[in-house]
Amino acid sequence: MADIDAWVWWLIGAAALGIPLVITAMPELGMLAVGAVAGAITAGMGGGVVLQVIVFAIVSCALIAVVRPVAARHRAQKPQLATGIEALKGKQAVVIERVDGQAGGRIKLGGEIWSARSLDAEATFEPGRQVDVVEIEGATAIVM
Q1: Alpha-carbon span 22 to 122, nearest angstrom
Q2: What's the helix, strand, coil split of the chain in %, to 5?
Q3: What is the distance between the alpha carbons of residues 60 and 40, in angstroms, rounded to a whole number?
Q4: Where in the cell is it found (predicted)?
């Protein structure tokens, strides 16, 4: 055990941190593993044990301080590409059957026929008119 160089121990530590990273998906472990690799590089360049630990701590803390907030911001963002009914909101449709706020009607939206009703209970849209889809409730498009 005493014959193994310090940089090898740092790499073993990096691998030991990398395995739980894959299992638990905790990115902090990956940042600590990168800090251990930095410690291995320091050891390989002839730095003392104290310097190796300092480099490990600085790199690990810096990564956690910088990368973690960026990752949290990305995790909180809505997807750039809307799919499903979210993609239909804001689209234009053509009225096929008279649409009003009470009985509803039919529109052609994205090549498909949808039941629809007016957002404003007083508004009425005649066939052939273009409307904007505001919301989707179940299988009914709310238009204005």
Answers
A1: 57
A2: 50, 20, 30
A3: 13
A4: Membrane
What CATH number does the domain containing 121 carry?
2.40.50.140
Q: What's the per-residue H, E or C state across 1-44?
A: CCCCCHHHHHHHHHHHHHHHHHHHCCHHHHHHHHHHHHHHHHHH
Q: What is the pLDDT of residues 92-129, one digit of tens each?
A: 999 999 998 888 899 999 889 999 999 988 889 999 99
Quote the domain boundaries for residue 130. 85-143
Is the distance from CB of 141 to CB of 133 less than 8 angstroms? yes
The count of structural domains within the chain is: 2
Assess if residue 136 is contained within a domain: yes
Rg (CA), the chain: 29
Same domain? 65 vs 100: no
Decide: 131 and 143 in contact? Cβ < 8 Å.
yes
Domain-embedded: residue 1: no
Same-domain status, 25 and 69: yes
Confirm if 56 and 38 have CB atoms less than 8 A apart.
yes
